[in-house]
Amino acid sequence: MNPVALNLSGIDPELDDIELNLFVSAMRQRHGYDFAQYAPASLKRRVYQLVEQHHTTNISTLTGRLLHDPTFLPQVLEGLSVPVSDMFRDPPVFRALREQVLPALSVHPRITIWQAGCARGQEIYSLAILLEEAGLYDRCQIYATDFNDAALRQAREGIYPAREAQAWSRNYQAAGGTCSLADYYSARYDFIKLDQRLRRNVVFADHNLVTDAVFCEAQLVLCRNVLIYFSNPLQNRVLAMFRDSLLPGGFLCLGLRENLALAPAARDFEALDSSLRLFRRCPEPVHDHEGG
Amino acid sequence: MKAVETIVIGCSTGGPGALARLLGALDHRLPASVVVCSHAASSPHTLCQLLAQHSTLPVIEACEREPVRGGMVQVAPPDYHLLIERGRRFALSIDEPVGFSRPSIDVLFSSAAEAYGAGLIAVILTGANADGAAGLACVRRAGGVAIVQQPDDAAAPAMPRAALELAGADHCLTLDEMAPLINRLCMT
Ligand SMILES: C[S@@+](CC[C@H](N)C(=O)[O-])C[C@H]1O[C@@H](n2cnc3c(N)ncnc32)[C@H](O)[C@@H]1O
Questions:
Q1: Considering the domain boundaries, does residue A193 fall inside one?
Q2: I want to staple B42 with a disulfide (CB 3.0 to 4.6 A). Which of A6, A181, B46, B179 is the partner?
Q3: How many domains does chain B have?
């Protein structure tokens, strides 16, 4: 059970801010992870969860341990990164990928796909299944990135609790699945393991959206429910990075409740289905005065 | 007393009916924002539509990064936690459910307590679990006003009961007594 992380908040907000800033500085200066531009309310909530999980008395104690105990960083990253996901979460989105995006990609002899913030891999296996069923998989190079190494390791293994299988199977069917999800995993005791052939063209790699740069030219970028954790300037910067990673006409798929209204970089995208947060990168800008 | 900027309302089992009655009795000139977190299983559109039929104020789904708007009811979208930033804008997260709930009333209330301090009213209505109790304690600690539905008056008494036990309340009322009090606290 995860801790409630509420008992401490609200006692002295000003002191909290000072402590939180020191924690963020320590993460950046000592470990190179920059959380300064994350949305404050949920970042703070997760830092409090860490305080409770590790039975420290306050954020400063946590910061001290972060600076002096070299084994502590992975646990802090795990706590801050929220690798929460599901297979075929939001089935209508995966149905639209199947019915609208993949047919458009099928005209390309080689297809490059980047999923940013892949967590424990649930969505990458979902996408791989769609690609297999569309007969496109062998033409694809898929990059699945995250800044949480523990999550990436689990993503490679593709092992999940068996209790998820039922809901994920329903999602798969609702997303237009033609087989049975069970065809793609083997069940053992309390776990299911996804067919490892599904990742033969997947490269799992450590990539931090805050500090790392564009590394591929993709026809599809999937980044669902990651930008919601970023403040407006960081959201815009990462959106511009997706634009620069996409070929003109390339597809961008974001989380169902993400709002781009405040991001200037959103102007370089047009909506394919705005309610599903499916976009296409606009063709290279054409000068207004060109032609007749 | 600090002027009321926002009213946060939490409920689960029996919530839609109770919300419809409460929102239907609010003053249509209410300047404060109303933010609703309900676990009720019905689809989000249905909940917004149902509430819009009864509410005196316009009802919309809360949208991330948008300002928390006065004179409007804003409903938490399903399957995300809804938070309020100190800059009085909405934020979403898909962190794990808290005690099986996402959106969690605790998460909304504790963030709102930090954002508004004494300028907040928090209301716990009917519900079959203990979500909201810890959040209500945060609200009270920060100086906000806690209103809890009388357990006997609630379709499901567990949620108000848990809130009373953990956080206590400034006002423990029947559903029909709530709107007049909220109107009075907000309109003066
Ligand atoms: C909530 S999960 C989203 C999982 C999946 N896309 C979904 O919607 O179900 C967010 C993921 O983003 C990753 N993330 C957060 N900040 C990041 C950053 N700066 N760079 C790369 N990944 C990041 C987290 O580690 C986490 O795995």
A1: yes
A2: B46
A3: 1
